[in-house]
Design brief:
The chain has 2 domains: 1-58, no CATH class; 60-265, Alpha-Beta Barrel (TIM Barrel), CATH 3.20.20.30. 44% of the residues lie in helices and 13% in strands. The strands form 2 sheets. Strands 3, 4, 5, 6 and 7 form a 5-stranded parallel β-sheet that branches. Strands 1-2 form a two-stranded antiparallel sheet. β3 (62-65), α3 and β4 (81-85) form a beta-alpha-beta unit. It has 12 helices and 7 strands. It has helices at 2-5, 14-30, 69-78, 90-107, 129-147, 153-156, 164-172, 188-194, 202-216, 232-245, 247-250, 277-281, and strands spanning 35-38, 43-47, 62-65, 81-85, 117-125, 197-200, 220-224. The protein is an alpha/beta fold. 26% of the residues are buried. The radius of gyration is 20 Å and the shape is globular.
Length: 285
């Protein structure tokens, strides 16, 4: 039922529409005068966004993927950051996914700046490990069993969303999806052991994140501090404890190597990545 899955858009058009709209957004951010856009899938007589982005030539860009090597190569060629969902269990999939990214970076002549990678992950913090399990276990189980775990594989990878080379890669070796096949029945312990969720005291969370960040060269943690039906007061508690007891320690992980963060807003301490002719010319096919 492609109309249900893709809001009425034929699946074969999903990826080319994404590619076209990405270029439209980048041009709209950079153009200093109104312009007409006559694309294959959308036409606008006058594109003139306001207010304009503060950062020039445009804000930093990051693309989210699930391990498809084509997406990794695309982000590296264009100078974009790469974001990865950690929901499949970093202890199962982390080595294969992140090694694949850094191998692609080396092959394309890019440096191993850890800030190239962002890692989105569910994080739960409490005063002790036992209290964290008591507070968050039922929410974590509901989120993964009834949410991600209930999505059939054919709907997780929507037709058209991944190009044919990426699909061939995934179906040859589906281990990229780690715990996914058993997620509908996964217990809280299963989720923690697989690395699908990071949960515990501030020291436990700091140790866990620091270890895999160093191991896989990850420079950005996109902490998902609310999920499932967590009530507002529990969410606020999680945010406050993460901010006070975890985040200050994570800021130090890569401070000793002196990398510049090109994929973070300039006004928040990021350093814009110089645009090259290669990055401007490459178009993902």
């Amino acid at each position: 039922m492609p109309g249900v899955l893709n809001n009425g858009v034929p699946p074969i058009e999903t990826r080319p529409r994404f590619d076209e709209n990405l270029e439209l957004i980048l041009k709209a951010w950079q153009a200093r005068e109104p312009f007409a856009w006559n694309g294959k899938y959308s036409q606008y007589p006058c594109v003139n966004i306001w207010p304009r982005p503060l950062q020039r030539p445009h804000p930093p860009v990051a693309i989210t993927g699930i391990g498809n090597p084509r997406t990794m190569e695309f982000t590296l060629q264009r100078g974009f950051g790469f974001n990865y969902f950690g929901w499949f269990g970093f202890r199962i999939t982390g080595r294969r996914i992140f090694d694949r990214f850094w191998e692609a970076a080396e092959r394309l002549g890019k440096d191993n700046n850890p800030y190239r990678i962002g890692f989105l992950h569910c994080v739960c913090v409490a005063d002790t490990d036992a209290q964290a399990e008591k507070l968050y276990a039922r929410h974590a189980e509901y989120f993964f069993q009834k949410g991600l775990g209930s999505i059939p594989m054919e709907r997780l990878m929507l037709p058209g969303g991944i190009d044919i080379r990426g699909l061939e890669f995934i179906f040859r070796d589906p281990r990229d999806f780690g715990l996914y096949a058993k997620m509908r029945d996964a217990s809280f312990k299963d989720l923690v052991d697989a690395g699908t969720i990071i949960c515990g005291s501030p020291s436990t969370v700091v140790d866990t994140v620091s270890a895999f960040s160093r191991d896989f060269r990850i420079g950005n943690l996109h902490a998902m501090l609310q999920f499932a039906y967590m009530p507002p007061e529990l969410t606020q508690y999680n945010i406050d404890l993460f901010a006070a007891g975890v985040m200050p320690h994570l800021r130090k992980i890569w401070a000793d190597e002196g990398w510049q963060h090109h994929w973070w807003p300039e006004r928040l301490g990021g350093v814009p990545l110089p645009q090259t002719s290669e990055q401007e010319a490459v178009s993902f096919q």
